Write the C-alpha cells for this entry.
Amino acid sequence: METINILYIGRHPEILETVIRLINANENWNGVGVMNDEEAKEIFLKKDFSIVLLGSGIQEESETELCTFFKNINTNISIVQHYGGGSGLLKSEILLTLENTK
Amino acid sequence: MENTDIIDGAITNSVLHKANSRGNANHGWLESYHTFSFANYQNSERMNFGVLRVLNDDRVSQGMGFGKHPHDNMEIISIPLEGDLEHQDSMGNTTVIKEGDIQAMSAGTGIFHSEYNKNKDQSVKFLQIWIYPNKKNVTPRYDQITLDLNDRHNKLQQILSPNPEDEGVWIHQNAWFHIGKFDSDFSTVYELKKPGNGVYAFVLKGDFTIGNIDLNERDGLGIWDTNAINITANSANAEILLMEVPMQLESNK
C-alpha cells in the first residue's frame, strides 16, 4: 500500500512530537512535523505530501501565506485544520480527508 | 438514524443515536462508549453534531486513569456521574471532581493534563465532551464548579454557557448545557437560546419522550431547525443532559 505523507505544522513542541508519534503509529502514514513556516515550505518542496495539518499557535497571516504557498506548489494538496492536539480526533481527520480526496 | 420529515409537526430535523449503536472500546481499566467517531471507532455518519465533536461515556477502574497527554484548540468538558476523578494539568491545577461538579478546559494553544480515578474501591463514571471553539489559539484555562443538585429537580439547571457571568462554567463557544432530574410524567419545554443552534439531548437515567420520540438511558437525540423542544419524563428520577450548540463552525481565527 502506498505511503501517505502528512506534514504537521504547529508551534507547541510537545504536541508536535505527540501528533507525529500518533501519525507514524499507522504503518501506511508517514508524519513529518515542523514548528516554523520556512521549514514547512522547504520540506514541502522536497517531499510529496498528501495532507497538511495545521496545528495550534499558527496565526491567521501565517496560515494564509502557507496555504497559498502549498496550493501554488500542489493544487491537489488537502489542508486540514487540526483540533484537539494529539488526540482521538487525529485519525478521523486524516481518514475523512483521504476519503474525500478519493 | 436521521429524520428530515415532519412528524406531527413536532420535530422537523433530528438524528437519533440509540445507546447500543455507539462505538465501544474496552481496554479493561477503561470502558468507553463513543457517540461520535473517536480513536479507533470510526464511523463517517457519526462525526459530530454541529460543533459537538466528542461525547464519550467513560468508566475508569479504581486507581486507574488517563496519564499526562496533550490537547489544543478544543473546549473540553467533564461531567462526573459516579465516583471521584483527580485532575492535574500543566497550568498547575490539582483538583478532584465528583458527582455534581462540572469541569471545563479551554485547551487553546496547548495544555497537558491527566485524569485518574481517585477511588480505591469503586469505578468512576463520567462524560467527556469536546466542543470545537469559536476562537483558535486562546490562552489555556481551567474551571471547575460544584453544582447544587437540588436545583435540577423538575427544572433544567444551566451548567454551562458562553458567558463568564452566567450560571455554570463557561467556554469559548455559543453553547449552553442544562441538566434536569424529573419526576415521572413531568414535562417541560426547552427554548433554544440562539437562532441557528441545535440541541443534543442525552439521557443520563430513565426514559423520556422528546417531541414524539421515545428515549431510553444513554440514547442521544439531536434536533435542529427548531426554537424549542418538549421534554417529558417517563420514569421516576429520570435525568437528562441538554447540549445546545451552533450547527456550524464559524470563523474562528
